[in-house]
Amino acid sequence: MPSALQTNLIAVALKLIDREGRIVTYRRVVPGVFTPATSTVAAAANTDTDVKTVQSSFSLKEIDGTTVEFGDKLLLIAAADLPARPSKSDLVIDGSETGKVMGLIVISPGDTDILYKVLVRP
Prior knowledge:
Layout: H1 4-20, E1 22-30, E2 34-35, E3 40-41, E4 45-57, E5 73-78, E6 91-94, E7 97-107, E8 115-121
Antiparallel strand pairs: 1-4, 1-6, 2-3, 4-5, 5-8, 6-7, 7-8
């Protein structure tokens, strides 16, 4: 059970996303499956979902050149807005820019995902 402070912080984050967020396309990428009998690969099954996100950049001291690189963004996404947890094969499309999901922090007090902090690399 989350503490009162955790509950309040989560509520503020979700309100921020709802009020100040911008809509991007979240693309769930499911790679095609190889069929040995026919030596073919089925087409990837992509599913697009429009979601509101709050985006931020990383400070210079947070950029370590490996986990976080220059140009990476951190996106806050309400878990209820996505059909499943983000994975590293997924993409985020913002206008003409496409970024790849590189990492994920799940905020889930208890057994329910509430908020995703998604590291995206252009």
